[in-house]
Fold this protein.
Amino acid sequence: MIVLGIETSCDETAASVVRDGREVVSSVVASQIEVHQEYGGVVPEIASRAHERAMLPVLDRAIADAGIGLGDLDAIAIGHRPGLIGSILVGMSAAKALSWSLGVPLIGVDHVHAHLAAGFLGVETAFEPALGVVISGGHTTIYRMDSLTDLTRLGSTIDDAIGEAFDKAAAILGLPYPGGPEIDRLSREAGADDRAVELPVSRLGKDSLDLSYSGLKTALLYAAKGKPTPPRIPGKPALVPEPVPELTPDRVRDLAASFQRAAVRALVLKVERALDRHDDLKMMVVGGGVSANSLVRSELARIARERGMVLVIPEMKHCVDNAAMIASLGSVLFAQGHRDGLDLVAVPTTAC
Ligand code: KG4
Ligand code: ZN
């Protein structure tokens, strides 16, 4: 079974050929990071236009690298939700045109769920009911996974996604976009003190499996730049906020490490709480850009080891957005008999 995956939901134009759901025969990712860097984040209209320019060359490369012809494809999988509508529509148009002209099925794939298929690429590990953890720039969700396509959401962020928080924290510290990898790198530098400042770890009550990252972001802002000056109350002495240390390179490094420690701690707390409640699960499946983070990887590996669980986490190149994960989940859906028509629509939100 040879499936072509197409991914254009955010700022990566990607196409990949995957055989039998697991073997990556080719994977091409054209990143737009440089285009958006000067704005400090993804600009939707610019993203759509960049996808238009990159789509056909990326498709050609994916087919050429795979050493196959278009006639060898059994199905076309497209990440049709969630994401930027204008961007999804570019990949969707290409996918529909191929499906129609080749006469092969079109399969719509949920991008967030596809992140959980990425860890199975290139490995033979058999799926078992699992705790699914998606940690990306747009989503932070914990699932019970009874199969790769049977997901029950247990909790998710009520405000910022964890990757978004990393990126905003990096912007506060004056680091380039996307900031997640920069914060990770600084935190690993010799001398980095992850206890330099005590930042809040959100818990949201003792029963919640939801997460929150906006308070942590504000706390970092205050630690880095100081609190805003409180308004003067007539007849009372002016309140002067406490001064904060200068943002030297060492201070930036320590704030980055302190932020990373608090952000990962909040995730770890909820993962452990979810596993306490679902103690029949013997596998943990992780995906999304933040699964590339070194502290996330070591902490989740520790939890899996302590609980005797199998940890399925993508290779670094499959953590961030790619089309191999779309083709992989598309293959699972294809094998289950799932088919979509040319009336498949782009949807801004995830299915669950
Ligand atoms: O999954 P992804 O490519 O896009 C979405 O579907 O959102 O994730 C991108 C996110 C960005 O926020 C980026 O800063 C973050 O993943 N990221 C990291 C690391 N590598 C990528 N965050 C922390 N540490 C990293 N090493
Ligand atoms: Zn993603």
The domain at 122-313 is CATH 3.30.420.40 (Nucleotidyltransferase; domain 5).
